[in-house]
Design goal:
Pfam families: DNA_pol_phi. By secondary structure, the protein is an all-alpha fold. Helix 9 runs antiparallel to helix 10, helix 16 runs parallel beside helix 19 and helix 20 runs parallel beside helix 23. It starts with 23 loop residues before the first helix and ends with a helix. The N terminus is likely disordered.
Length: 1039
């Protein structure tokens, strides 16, 4: 037994004093330091009775480290001190007594750093060895009896009635920590008298200062776990006699004892079990102030804000553990007992109308404690959302000026965190928030996004239960008018449809969250006959937005098509489209979705065409006037795709481009997403004529005239719809879900192709911008001057700054009525003309923005084509290069900088993709004869670009043209016959520049020379490698 390992590595737990607030320093000391300190090993030799100077320094160092905030230092020092006192043969009694009196018990009353924690650690170990298993108190230290050691504690922590309030507080806490050392040492269970002596001290201490009562109670709870049944019975009897039972501490002690000994004998008063149904009438009074920090004054005064504490009483941990354990044994009984306890003790007490703000604050903390601790007990969670709590929660969260607003928001965040951790709880929580005790429009009532965030945690396992909670059989049960109910339901389904699909649920609508949600939303917007007409348009707009979100995620493609197929809306039997065209569209959509009819080559185009059919059917139900033409064009595309490979698929790309251009012209996110996905699937089908249809709009003037050229066949209804979109008028929530895109032309597009290029060419661009701004300002000033002159002529007056220029008029007289009428008519005519001019300016501005926006959408499609086709590893279609002249002219002519930047980016992408496709080589490898490759056409395109580069001296434009020319040169120079033509072209252009015939940035020729230098270096390295191999082969032959 003498060689038994000492228990010194175990630090006292941080929940020793659960209700006592600690300073940041204490907390840091308790939790330990993240920074490890390298220190030398401490001396563990025995302490002497008459220490020398060096030995006293050693003691001082050890006890200083024992009070350190670093947990590692404390443990090392405790190990050294215990080894120095009780290690080996143990020190003499006088030495141990000196350390107990002068150091350890005395140090408990010190408030320095973490002294109490460190000194408690050593005392607990020493007391355990003195009066525990080893019983050193009888064998080696006969003079150190239990009573004597306890007396030393009381003596060293006695306040003596003198000193400041802080000193008194330190002594009381020192005594409490010392008593706890006796409990944690485990030396009281064997001797009932010892425990009763300690219990008396705890009761006296709790009576001296009310703020010590909870800490004293918690020490008793710790002792209960070590007691025998008889000692526990005696303890409860003693507490009952002292009136300690009807307090939060007493409730906790009773619960701890009864959970340990369910069949123990308890006092008749005040209760058999505090959580029994018979005790619930008196329990609220005992727990009423369990959330308030006790003070010396609040015993006879009402609670005040200053008395609140953010730390709950330990009794709630014991209550939670009790009901969780009970629920695990019997779910039905446990749920019923907890429901009665929660409603009577918490809901009707802490959240009653007469409850104070401090009690409601405590109630919110209790709610969070129970919610976070009962994640494995759904029956407990479902009963937490009681009537009074929900009313208080919604009221306090709704406005920032509410007293408990932050506490309510914290409770809502706790709900979100618990559901994120345990998604299986979502149906239960959602049912309570939107159900009878909550509000179906919970988000509107609380001005939060709680339900939205909760819905994001929906999983395939919970989606059906969630939908059942959202879709009420009787809308009247929601407590809302029918339009408001359906609007709220549409919002919830929209958010649910935005939940990403899991990888295992691709194209499985029966299990997928967005699949089931979009089906429900489509049914609500198009098929449900009970939906009021007034709200139907809003729901359809929301479903369109949901479709747009699904389109942006390729894994959800099947969900969108299935949702369209599931629509069963009433249609007019006399409608030609509904009677003949629509069934054909449905039939084609089903055939396109049939996986058995797809090959590896046609799978993507068939899915893209299916997507177009689905959007067309959706447009029909949205009563789009152009849907008839769309179905005809889709029919042509379908027939040509079906005959692909048999020579009958000519012209499919032209049809598709016409359809896609009509789609991107609409201010709709869905149309933009669909057009891009469809175009990407058909890039390999694009012909020269189809690409010309895309590049022609880039040449259009950015003005009202250009708008008329682009949209000359535009339907008046579509123009009205766009005007209505501009007017707005929807609520904030509807704006968030709207499918209409708001484009900011200043932010659209991307930055320039190269930041350095932008900086170098910024001077010219800034001059252009400044000149444009000055021109606009001059025009505005001219208009104002004209207005001033017209008013001066009519009124016979002048501006104040023109007094010197005005002629003197001494015989001023009042105007007659007829003269005033004439003046009034002239003023009316002037301001009418002014308003007409302003309206015309606004129309021109809107037309310019429309054209620029359309060009952005066209560039998005072309960017997809360039990125995909230019990266082909074997053969790049020459059609890619046909796009370059249009891009270059757009960079030069456009007035929108973002548009020019986007075109520059496309040229950079073309160059990089070509280089990547040829493996990083400067010049492509010849695969086919030059005529088959169309290299002669590339030389002609380069000549056209060399003419273009002289039309604009801006650096960004020059760099874009140079990049395009070098990209073409890298392909053309693969043929030696065409290589000379390229060099001759650059030579002619350089000579014209030298002769002053054209003005070109020098960077254009510098880029060409750098390109040549790079190719020359590569060629030289390749030639050297060949020569080296030949020499090696020659040497081998000689050998």
């Amino acid at each position: 037994m003498a060689n038994k390992r000492k228990r010194v590595a175990k630090e006292p737990s941080n929940d020793t004093l659960p209700s006592q607030k600690r300073s940041k320093k204490d907390a840091a000391g308790a939790n330990g330091s993240a920074k490890s300190k390298a220190s030398k090993a401490l001396d563990k030799s025995p302490f002497t009775e008459h220490p020398t100077v060096d030995e006293r320094k050693r003691e001082l160092e050890l006890y200083n480290k024992l009070g350190s905030e670093d947990v590692g230092d404390r443990i090392d020092a405790a190990d050294a001190i215990i080894s120095g006192l009780l290690g080996g043969e143990c020190v003499p009694e006088q030495v141990l007594l000196r350390h107990l009196e002068k150091r350890l018990f005395r140090g408990l009353a010190s408030g320095r750093n973490a002294s109490r924690l460190g000194f408690s650690l050593v005392l607990t170990e020493i007391l355990g060895q003195l009066f525990g298993e080893k019983d050193l108190g009888s064998s080696k230290y006969a003079g150190l009896t239990f009573d004597k050691v306890l007396g030393i504690l009381l003596e060293k922590t006695h306040t003596g009635g003198a000193g400041s309030g802080q000193e008194e507080r330190d002594h009381y806490f020192g005594q409490l920590f010392g008593i706890e050392c006796f409990v944690r040492a485990g030396i009281l269970s064997a001797d009932k008298a010892r425990w009763l002596l300690i219990l008396d001290l705890l009761l006296k201490l709790s009576a001296k200062k009310s703020w010590l009562k909870s800490q004293c109670g918690y020490v008793v709870v710790q002792a209960v776990s070590q007691m025998s049944k008889k000692v526990a019975e005696a303890t409860l009897e003693k507490l009952s006699e002292e009136g300690f039972a009807k307090s939060p501490e007493g409730v906790g002690i009773w619960i701890a004892a009864l959970d340990r000994f369910p069949d123990m004998k308890v006092p008749a008063q005040p209760w058999q079990h505090p959580l029994a149904v018979t005790s619930l009438s008196t329990l609220p009074a005992a727990l009423k102030d369990s959330g308030r920090e006790a003070t010396e004054e609040n015993a006879n005064k009402k609670s005040r804000q200053g008395n609140w504490t953010a730390q709950l009483h330990f009794v709630w941990d014991l209550i939670l553990a009790h009901f969780v354990k009970l629920g695990a044994q019997s779910k039905k009984d446990g749920a019923e007992q907890f429901k009665q306890f929660w409603n009577r003790v918490v809901d009707e007490s802490f959240f009653s109308k007469n409850a104070s703000d401090s009690q409601k604050f405590s109630g919110f903390m209790i709610f969070q404690k129970m919610l976070e601790g009962a994640t494995d007990s759904p029956s407990v969670v479902s009963n937490l959302f009681s009537k009074n709590l929900m009313v208080c929660l919604m009221n306090q969260a709704s406005k920032e000026d509410r007293y408990l607003h932050r506490a309510a928001l914290k409770a809502l965040k706790a709900i979100e965190a618990v559901v994120e951790t345990e998604p299986a709880l979502l149906p239960i929580v959602l049912k309570e928030l939107l159900g009878k005790q909550g509000a179906y429009n919970f988000e509107q009532r609380t001005n939060t996004k709680t339900v939205d965030k909760l819905l994001q945690q929906t999983t395939p396992a919970t989606v059906k239960s969630v939908l059942k909670t959202l879709q009420l059989k009787e809308p009247a049960k929601s407590g809302l008018d029918e339009p408001k109910y359906y609007q709220a339901l549409g919002g919830y389904l929209f958010r649910l449809a935005s939940v990403p699909s899991e990888a295992t649920d691709v194209d499985t609508s029966s299990k997928s969250v967005p699949g089931l949600a979009i089906n429900a939303l489509a049914d609500l917007a198009y098929s449900n006959k009970s939906v009021p007409v007034s709200i139907r348009e809003t729901l359809r707009a929301r479903s369109t937005s949901a479709f747009a979100k699904l389109v942006s995620r390729p894994e959800d493609f099947g969900h969108l098509c299935n949702a369209i197929l599931s629509i069963e809306a009433d249609v007019d039997p006399d409608d030609e489209i509904a009677g003949s065209v629509l069934p054909d569209a449905y039939e084609r959509l089903k055939n396109l979705l049939d996986p058995g009819k797809s090959t590896d080559e046609t799978r993507e185009p068939r899915q893209a065409l299916a997507l177009l059919h689905a959007v067309g059917i959706l447009q029909f139900y949205n009563q789009d006037p152009d849907v008839m033409d769309l179905f005809e064009e889709l029919g042509e595309c379908y027939d040509k795709l079906e005959s692909h490979g048999r020579g009958s698929d000519q012209g499919i790309s032209e049809y598709l481009v016409e359809i896609l251009l009509a789609m991107v012209a609409r201010p709709s996110s869905l149309m933009r997403q669909v057009s891009q996905q469809v175009f990407e699937a058909f890039t390999g089908y694009m012909s020269e004529d189809a690409l010309k249809l895309l590049t022609d709009p880039l040449e259009v003037e950015e003005s009202a005239k250009g708008q008329q050229a682009l949209f000359s066949t535009e339907d008046e209804d579509m123009m009205d719809a766009e005007a209505a979109d501009d007017d707005g008028g929807e609520s904030d929530e509807e704006e968030l879900d709207s499918d209409v895109e708001i484009v900011n032309l200043e932010d659209a597009g991307s930055e320039g192709p190269d930041d350095s290029d932008e900086e170098e060419g910024s001077g010219d661009e800034e001059d252009d911008e400044e000149g444009g701004e000055e021109a606009v300002q001059d025009k505005d000033q001219e208009a104002l001057d004209a207005l001033d002159n017209a008013l001066a002529e009519v009124l016979g007056s002048h501006r104040l700054d023109k007094d010197n220029e005005a002629a003197s008029d001494d015989d001023e007289s009042d105007m007659t009525d007829s003269e005033m009428m004439v003046v009034d008519e002239k003023l009316t005519e002037i301001f009418k003309h002014r308003a007409k001019t302003s309206s015309k300016k606004k129309e021109n501005k809107d037309a310019k923005e429309t054209v620029i926006n359309f060009k952005h959408r066209v560039l998005d499609l072309l960017a997809i084509y360039v990125k995909k086709e230019a990266a082909r590893p074997l053969l790049v279609p020459m059609h890619v290069f046909d796009l370059v002249p249009a891009l270059v002219r757009l960079i030069r002519t456009t007035t929108a900088k973002p548009l020019a930047n986007k075109a520059c980016d496309m040229i950079q992408t073309l160059s990089k993709s070509l280089k990547k496709a040829r493996g990083g080589r400067q010049v492509a490898t010849v695969i086919k004869p030059s005529e088959a490759l169309g290299l002669g056409g590339l030389v002609s395109l380069m000549e056209e670009l060399h003419d273009e580069v002289a039309k604009d001296m801006s650096h960004a434009f020059t760099r874009a043209v140079s990049t395009a020319c070098l990209a073409m040169a890298s392909v053309t120079c693969c043929d030696e016959a065409r290589r000379e033509e390229v060099f001759a072209l650059y030579s002619r252009t350089q000579l014209r520049w030298f002769n002053g015939e054209v003005k070109i940035q020098a960077a254009f020729f510098v880029d060409w020379l750098n390109w040549c230098q790079s190719h020359a270096s590569t060629a030289a390295a390749a030639a050297a490698a060949v020569t080296g191999r030949q020499e090696e082969e020659g040497e081998e032959e000689e050998e």
